Amino acid sequence: MDELNNTWRDLINRLDRVKDNGKNHIEACCPAHDDNNPSLSISMKADRILINCHAGCSFQEIISALDMGNHSFSLSSKTNSESPKTIARYTYENTEAKKVYDAVRFEPKMFRFQRPDGEWTLDGVTRVPYRLPQLLAGIKEGREIL
């Protein structure tokens, strides 16, 4: 647990605009993209540190930007070796109904974004609303959009 606490303290010291949201949960600006509005959520659990960028940056991108690749974010080697189970895949399409990226939900609850080329990043991708073609069709037909 000391190793995890050391990683937690080091992580907090490397981040900008850290906001403490309660015991072992913080928000900060994501170092992996130009972040002016804190979009990074980090929580420390009993056996691991959970990191989530709400803008879609991957764990590896965040850790690389912080130069923390040699740190341990989990006490259990089992946690690092097991792949999370895919629960759902939400496809985001452009105005021509062409796939732009997927939001993939895993268990335990976590979302990651995947480009059509298989890369787990949104770098170089134009972000679009979910179900954009249906949204535009609804607007064209004069339906109420909620």
Automatic annotation (TrEMBL):
InterPro entries to which the protein is assigned, alphabetical: DNA_primase_Znf_CHC2
UniProt-listed GO biological process terms: DNA replication
One GO MF term attached to the UniProt entry: DNA binding
Query: What name does this protein carry?
Result: Zinc finger CHC2-type domain-containing protein
Q: Which organism is it from?
A: marine metagenome
